[in-house]
Amino acid sequence: MISKGNPVVAADGGFTPPGPGDFDLPPIGGGHETFDWLGQSHYIGVTKPMLQLVLAAVLVFGFFYVTARKQAMVPGRMQFIGEQAYGFVRNSMGRDIIGSHDFMRFVPYLFTLFFFILLNNLFASLPGVQFPTFSRSGMVYALAGMSWIVYNAVGIKKHGFIGYLKLQSVPAGVGGPILLLLVPLEFLSNIVVRPVTLALRLFANMLAGHLLLILFALGGQYLIVEMAIQYAPVGILAWVMFILISFLELLVQFLQAYVFVLLNAMYISGALADEH
Hints:
Elements: E1 34-37, E2 40-43, H1 48-68, H2 77-98, H3 107-122, H4 137-159, H5 161-169, H6 179-226, H7 232-272
Antiparallel strand pairs: 1-2
Helix pairs in contact: 1-2, 1-3, 2-3, 2-7, 3-7, 4-5, 4-6, 4-7, 6-7
């Protein structure tokens, strides 16, 4: 039980550590009606992460609409930023991974996915928001599920259903009884497990990083405000760690968006390839 006076002080006077429950935000405007699903209770209503998804979509569209609106021969500052951002995704995650023959039709998807994830990650470090949207696992699984549909649909369209299953399940140049072991493993790895690992990587990093920030921020506050004066230097050190980890989190937020989209490009490339 947490005291009303200070959210980090328990009823017995001890420190209340942050946990996954801190990410289960109630609906906007109040309300505490819940429903049970997959062994957990979930709030009914529009929550802060839901609004962040919509806000990120609007901001990404609005920013790049403004940067691409004029398309002058000599780009201005905004157009230059937009072109550099587009070129980064187009070249490093599209052309270099998928290949020059097929990459262009996937660039809009990869481009939108990267900046949508990046902005939602950066919300964790934005004053006034300070919540990573993808620390909610269901939202990450939705993205991973969409990616799963895209790269499998691409592979099936090119190779046919049976041909695609063979491509993903039967290693090239391998024959004999060893296939009895390798085919199920390849099928699980390439078809079943990929969206799960894709989602878990992003979700776990966003959850753990923000949990660490909460721990150092609230722990430092508790040591300085609630404990004896001799603990104050440790509390100050905790706040210094909070600041340093905040900068590290900015790098992690970018890298996780980059890795998520890079893996998408690799999966699309694998689905289009004639053999593995």
